[in-house]
User: Which sequence fits this backbone?
């Protein structure tokens, strides 16, 4: 279902992770979205998975034959977008 | 399906996977059961630091052995675990700390550790961004370092599978079977029973609940900690900076250029609550910018929480329990990732050969819980 010539396609732009690398990990037995995230760092870059998250879900659904709704979503963590420390500290930074 | 194993390990963090790896390497048929996913407990929530600067002989020697294992892990496991000797600096802002650190350095040097007490200006030369206001000096060990907890566990887990062992995740152990004082196996939430005459409790923050399944009341309690990581900026080989003042914290620059860190709350927060607080993000930002002011321009990417598994004296419990064949490697008290590779190897050797590499009575199950680890 995934053509050989698509393997160089970048799935996670923040961490430069290709479809081939994700497929290799899945073939190596990592099919839990939480482990895929941690072992490959897919979705742990600047966008926090907002770009690649849906793609990874779809890949896992394809590979496992499940519906995308059955693939567990990984934990979302604050802040939603990166915030410089000086913005967080505001005027309270003595 | 044959459900008999030489050893069953409960817990898929660094302790469970390293112990399982070395046991499988010695030829044992290993089953590792994890109730969530690998690294879901304390290991995947730690801030990646690996240090050898401790105050008691067994902990210093274990940590030094662990560093040797981290250094060779890429060859041993075939996975780049991002090991880097970026060092640890313990900052002293008062005379009492200076004295305490110097006393510890004397002990650490007896075991051959390359550690020294250097002046604030020497520290500043190594870390140009460091704020040295009121800093009297630092305990500096350049061979301390950092690695990726995820890659380490991935490497050990692969090793277990390559050595013929099994890992089952999302499979919670709900009971430990004991007959006439001997362990016989475990039962899971799925109602499956796995048989073995050896079971190892590597359950981290859940260690107490797991021990109680066999009637063993371990003196361990989970303690909540929060942590955060920033966006990446240029990597400057900045060591782990440890500031133990009441409003201090500790953080390191990862090889990815990101800063990762946390602080220990003044009043201990018991439990396993994994929610994050805005209060922590603000307070940690303030503390990091106090130590390295240039960080005010760096953005926070993500925050999370996890639990230490604390013992009364801050040292782990690595031993066989009064139930024959039931072992525990628990109570890491915030040092599981850094000690894990060595403790896994040592416990595996103890199970196979019946010997420890050196006097491990500091970690004994039946010890009296007295003095606290001075560099907790």
Assistant:
């Amino acid at each position: 279902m995934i053509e050989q010539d698509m393997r160089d396609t970048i799935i996670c732009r923040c961490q430069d992770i290709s479809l081939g690398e994700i497929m290799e990990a899945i073939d190596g037995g990592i099919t839990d979205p939480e482990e895929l995230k941690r072992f490959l760092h897919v979705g742990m870059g600047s966008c926090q998975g907002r770009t690649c998250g849906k793609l990874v879900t779809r890949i896992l659904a394809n590979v496992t034959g499940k519906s995308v709704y059955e693939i567990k979503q990984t934990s979302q963590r604050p802040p939603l977008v990166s915030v410089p420390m000086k913005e967080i500290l505001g005027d309270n930074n003595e | 399906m044959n459900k008999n194993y030489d050893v069953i390990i409960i817990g898929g963090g660094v302790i469970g996977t390293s112990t399982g790896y070395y046991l499988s390497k010695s030829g044992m048929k290993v089953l590792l059961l994890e109730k969530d996913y690998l690294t879901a407990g304390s290991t995947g929530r730690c801030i990646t630091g690996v240090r050898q600067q401790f105050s008691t002989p067994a902990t210093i020697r274990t940590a030094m052995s662990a560093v040797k294992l981290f250094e060779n892990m890429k060859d041993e496991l075939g996975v780049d675990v991002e090991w880097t000797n970026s060092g640890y600096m313990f900052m002293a802002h008062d005379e009492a700390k200076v004295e305490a650190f110097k006393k510890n350095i004397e002990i650490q040097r007896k075991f051959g550790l390359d550690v020294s007490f250097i002046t604030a200006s020497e520290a500043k030369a190594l870390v140009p961004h460091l704020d040295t206001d009121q800093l009297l000096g630092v305990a500096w060990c350049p061979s301390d370092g950092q690695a990726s907890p995820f890659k380490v566990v991935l490497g050990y887990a692969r090793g277990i599978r390559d050595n013929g062992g099994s890992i089952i995740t999302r499979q919670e152990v709900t009971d430990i079977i004991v007959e006439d004082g001997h362990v016989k196996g475990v039962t899971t939430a799925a109602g499956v029973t796995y048989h073995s005459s050896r079971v190892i409790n590597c359950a981290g923050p859940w260690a107490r609940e797991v021990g109680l399944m066999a009637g063993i009341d371990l003196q361990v309690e989970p303690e909540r900690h929060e942590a955060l990581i920033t966006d990446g900026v240029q990597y400057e080989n900045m060591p782990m900076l440890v500031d133990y003042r009441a409003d201090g914290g500790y953080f390191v620059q990862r090889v990815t250029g990101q800063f990762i860190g946390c602080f220990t709350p003044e009043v201990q927060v018991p439990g396993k609550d994994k929610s994050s607080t805005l209060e922590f993000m603000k307070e940690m930002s303030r503390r990091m910018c106090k130590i390295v002011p240039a960080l005010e321009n760096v953005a926070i990417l993500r925050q999370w929480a996890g639990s230490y598994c604390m013992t009364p004296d801050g040292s782990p419990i690595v031993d066989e329990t009064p139930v024959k064949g039931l072992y525990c490697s628990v109570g890491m008290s915030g040092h599981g990732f850094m000690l894990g590779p060595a403790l896994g190897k040592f416990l595996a050797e103890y199970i196979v050969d019946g010997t420890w590499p050196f006097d491990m009575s500091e970690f004994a199950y039946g010890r009296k819980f007295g003095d606290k680890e001075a560099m907790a």
Notes: The interface with chain A takes residues 36-40, 44, 150-151, 154, 158, 161, 169-170, 230-231, 276, 278, 281-282, 285-286, 288-289, 295-304 of chain B (CB under 8 Å). The first strand of chain B starts at residue 7 and ends at 10. Chain B has nine helices and 19 strands. The two ends of chain B are 46 Å apart (CA to CA).
